[in-house]
Amino acid sequence: MVKILDNKLIQQIEEICTARGVRLTSQRKRVFELICSSKKASSAYELLEELKISEPQAKPPTVYRALDFLLEQGFIHRVESTNSFISCCSCNAHKHSSHLLICDECGNVTELQNDKLVTLLEENAEKHGFKIHNHVIESHGVCQSCSSN
């Protein structure tokens, strides 16, 4: 299933980059568009193959540099368990922790935000004298669409 790419989202990240004084190059923008165009998480090599359609000269470092930039700016998340990438539901409108629901059958990934869960995790960490800097919770299972098939 392909998501409809929202031009407002592209405009939003362009405005964020301008405000931050960082460059959203055409390649970075294209990699972001490719990530946003799928409900599934995309690997760097899948993104490279897609990028080569419009930029045949593209090489792995091109994609990796774009991914590093997009991660640094908070526009995407890395799905650690599959070493792949999804768009951030808030595009770094505010710092947040993510809970990813990953369907093991179709590969779709849904990002959730739950302040109660984050508070509970922080309280548990604090009890052990641990300060969390960042976390992404990944839950693997079967989505509603796949479980009804």
TrEMBL record:
Record: residues binding Fe cation: 96, 135
Species lineage: Bacteria, Pseudomonadati, Pseudomonadota, Gammaproteobacteria, Vibrionales
Protein's UniProt name: Ferric uptake regulation protein
Known partners and oligomeric status: Homodimer.
Molecular function as annotated in GO: DNA-binding transcription factor activity; transcription cis-regulatory region binding; zinc ion binding
Protein family according to the UniProt entry: Belongs to the Fur family.
Short name of any one Pfam family annotated for the protein: FUR
InterPro entries cross-referenced by the UniProt entry: FUR, Fur_C, WH-like_DNA-bd_sf, WH_DNA-bd_sf
Location relative to the cell: Cytoplasm
Co-factor: note: Binds 1 zinc ion per subunit.
Assigned GO CC terms: cytosol
Cofactor or coenzyme needed: Zn(2+); Mn(2+); Fe(2+)
Organism: Vibrio eleionomae
Alphabetized UniProt keyword annotations: Cytoplasm, DNA-binding, Iron, Metal-binding, Repressor, Transcription, Transcription regulation, Zinc
